[in-house]
Amino acid sequence: MSTETETYRDGIINLLQTIHEGTPVIEKAAEAMAKAIMDDKLIHVIGPGGHSNMGAEELLWRAGGLAPINAILDPGTNLIHGAKRSNVIERTPGYAKQVLDAYRVGKEPGEVIIIVNAYGVNAMSIDTVLEAK
Q: How far apart are CA 28 and CA 44, in angstroms?
């Protein structure tokens, strides 16, 4: 086995171990989602910036997927309007609150929001987490 293949394999094993260690948190999130669905509520999903939008898109209207998904697909952060624009907007403090308000997120108790982001350091990611609390 080549060094590159071993490195790749070891990386996958480490990722699987990280997922395994996160099982209690994953189960808690799954329970919150199941309760929201049983209570006839939407599950909101947002990818706050650039490529993260694709995560939200993946959950929307997939064949055999969950129907009660409110994908927050804000055009301001979508890459089809330009990466530079998306980058500026996702770094704008306060922008997330406006987007969440426009999508009526946080209006009822027990709502669930999934935040898809690789890094979680842009203003939109942080503001979304703070608003979700």
A: 17
Do the beta carbons of residue 79 and residue 51 sit within 8 Å?
yes
Q: Of 92, 86, 91, 88, which Cα lies nearest the Cα of 73?
A: 86
Q: Between the ranges 18-32, 48-62, 68-82, where is the mean pLDDT highest?
A: 18-32
Residue 20's CB: how many other CB atoms inside 10 A?
9
Q: What angle do CA 99, 31, 124 make, to 5 degrees?
A: 20
The tokens describing 13, both together, are 């094993």
Residue ranges per domain, the chain?
1-28, 41-132
Angle between helices 123-132 and 95-102 (to 10 degrees): 50
pTM of the model: 0.85
